[in-house]
């Protein structure tokens, strides 16, 4: 076996030899004059007539015809041998009685060499002359008959090629040679007809090539290169020059599409692509350019969309919207547009938050943060009652459509005792339960609320010291407004009480049923409600409650102890009722329809919405409302805040 060193040496020599051969081939191809070869004198194809036909000189007509009809890329035609093989018919070979004589065999051998050399007719040593002599000596020679058929088929193939490229002179010369061969009448008749057609279409092709060079590819209609090529195809459906011309017409239109893209005119590019598609539907060059335009379109649109994102990050919604529209005009199908449109809508409606998102604001001037807020989606709903319910008493009518076109965030739960304590300590604010003295608390013995001069905001519903995670009660409307204003000062954002329309919209959570959980008794623990299964410390029961429901609390529960509604809000229709911003009105006649608060200067009564731990099922209806003086402090009433976006 050879050693490793020997193998490496062999590989090296083999690789070096391959590189030398490759270098020689490339040099010969691109720099033939180094080898004393003139490319202009190199043969285009072998001549079929031997040295030349009698009486014929050099053949400039073919080159002139090609230059005259040059409409674009060179025609790609199959080699003559391939065409012969494809068009070959079974020759009517005779039944040979006797073997070919030595003289005939010699003639056949010479004819075969002449055929391979391309010397078909025109000289005594041509294949046709030798084969006819063989047939004269032995008429039943199968090889001679077959050879003559091959000569005839070769001539027919080359005449077809000349006609295809528009070289009428060369085709005529070859046709005259074909006439001299036996059994060629059928082919001669067909080729003569083809030559007559060529005579008609040749000036049309020349004119079409001129129009194409003048830039009149497919316009003006009726006087363009495309119109002439189409007309040629009607006369000669197989005309290769016309087919190539149409190819080049489409190429010119596609070039205009690429030029339009270079100028960021994608609408113009689309028009040019549509015109090109109509010329040659589904062509490979059409598909290639379409792919290039699509790629450039996507790149350009992505670049503009990146600028739109930068504008959005900078808070410039107008610029972001304009740039997004430009990206959409460039590429309506850009996948990233959908996500960006959501971001743009969220920025416009929700200050770059998104519906359902939970956040809190940090204080800017002291440690701490706001209660958790949840973003409420925009939308429309029917506010109030359609009437006919016993509790409505016309105060929740007329029912009317309210549209909230601007997003807002609402506290996920009622404000807790701990959160309100932070406010009192940091601000020095004196709640009205302290300043005015007392509140309404639950009396276990009577089962009703009673006034207690000693109760304040730090107590629970029954006047006992409250845990920090309970909702703050015994606070007035004025206390709630003061807390929201304090949050605004601490954060630099706008905090306030919700409007009555915002509260009902948020409470419903997109539902149209009696309660946000449905029309009847809940099937699971959804809120702190009055359930028939609940008991007070002295085993009191509710006289009017949700039958079969039990949440385990008599009085408020720690916030967020139960399920949120569809908008992510806890305790929105239970636990404690809540102050809203609106002044009290006896009905909704002339009520705002845009979700804003209905305020009257100096009003002394405001609206309380939502059910509480002590509300009857009727008072838990989504449309239930009641009014109370602004200084009322009750063990059943608390509040939550809204943050504008």
What does this structure look like?
α7 runs antiparallel to α8, α9 runs antiparallel to α10 (about 240-260) and α10 (about 240-260) runs parallel beside α12 (about 285-315). Mean pLDDT is about 85; it is low at about 20-50, about 50-80 and about 85-90. This protein has 18 helices and 13 strands. It starts with a helix and ends with a strand. Helix content is about 45%, strand content about 10%. The protein is rod-shaped, with a radius of gyration of 48 Å. It is α+β, with helices and mostly antiparallel strands and about 650 residues long. Among the domains are: about 5-40; about 60-180, no CATH class; about 295-350; about 375-425 and about 470-645, paralog of FGE (formylglycine-generating enzyme) (Alpha-Beta Complex).
What's the Cα radius of gyration? 48 Å
Give the strand order of the largest sheet, numbering strands 1, 2, ... along the chain.
1-2-5-13-8
Overall shape: it is: rod-shaped
Overall SS class: alpha+beta
Q: Tell me the CATH architecture of the domain at 373-427 and 470-644.
A: Alpha-Beta Complex
Summarize the biggest pleated sheet.
Answer: 5 strands, antiparallel
- CATH topology value of the domain at 373-427 and 470-644: paralog of FGE (formylglycine-generating enzyme)
